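User: My instructor asked us to take a sequence, write out its structure as C-alpha cells, and then describe one feature of it. I'm not sure where to start. Here is the sequence I was given:
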Amino acid sequence: MTTLIIVLLVLWAVFAVVGFVVEGLLWLAFIGLILLVATVAWGWLKRRTGRD
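Assistant: Let's start with the prediction itself. The C-alpha cells for your sequence are:
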C-alpha cells in the first residue's frame, strides 16, 4: 500500500511540474496539485487508522 501511495505522489508531482513548465498545460498543474493533496490526505488517513 505504501508503494502505491509513493508512486501516485511521484506521478502527481510530475504532472504538476509539467503543467507549470508547459504554458498551455496550466490546467494539468492544478489537477496534479489537487491529486497530490488528495493522495497525501488519503495516505495519512490510512496510516492513522492502521488499515490497508
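For the description part of your assignment, you could build on this observation: Residues 26-49 form the longest helix (24 residues). Try explaining in your own words what that tells you about the chain.
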